[in-house]
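Q: Could you write out the predicted structure for this multi-component system? I'm mainly interested in how the pieces pack against one another.
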Amino acid sequence: DTEVTQTPKHLVMGMTNKKSLKCEQHMGHRAMYWYKQKAKKPPELMFVYSYEKLSINESVPSRFSPECPNSSLLNLHLHALQPEDSALYLCASSQDYRGEETQYFGPGTRLLVL
Amino acid sequence: AQKITQTQPGMFVQEKEAVTLDCTYDTSDPSYGLFWYKQPSSGEMIFLIYQGSYDQQNATEGRYSLNFQKARKSANLVISASQLGDSAMYFCAMREGNAGGTSYGKLTFGQGTILTVHP
C-alpha cells in the first residue's frame, strides 16, 4: 500500500484566516515532505521532516508553519497568506531521506487565497 | 545549470501506439536515482518507475520502461500501447545520493511534458 492521504481536497481562505492542511501515511515512512506547485510547473520543495524533526526549510515565509505530531502525520499551518500563495500543495513520504528512496505523493490540496 | 531537462513541452500520440518522453540530467555525483511521475489533471503525482545509477538493466514496470543511457545522461520514458488514460503531465526527476552534497536527497524535477493520447 503506497497511499498518502491529504485533507482537505480544496480550501478557500481569506488573507486574515488561519487554516491547516493535513497529511497522513501509514507506510512506516520516516521522511515526509511538503511541496508547493503552481499550474503547469514542477513541484517546489518547501519542507522536509526526517524522523519527525525538521531537516530542511527551503526559505519558506513564516506564514507557512509545518508540524509533525508523529511519524504518520504532517500538518501545514497557514496564516495571513497572500493571493500568490494560491497553489496545489502536495505532501509526500519516503522510507527514509536518502537518494534512492522513492517519494510517494498524496492527491494534494488546492488552495485559493482571496 | 538545469539538472533535469525535458525538451518536449507537449507530445501527441495515437491510442495503442508507443511514445518516448525525453529526459536528460546533469550530475557529478556517481550515486543518484532517476524517477518518472505522472500527474493527471486531478493533481495527484503518481510514481511510475525508478532507475538507480548503478542498475545494469533498464527498469520496466508494465507498459512503462526507462531507456537509461548513462554515458549520455539520458533517462527517457517509453510508454507502450498508449491508452486514453495516459493523457497527463509527465515529470522526470532526480535525487542525488552523495550524503555530503547540498543537494543530497532532494528531488529535482524537470519542467514536464504534457502527453495527449488521441483515439
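A: Regarding packing and overall arrangement: The longest strand of chain B covers residues 88-96.
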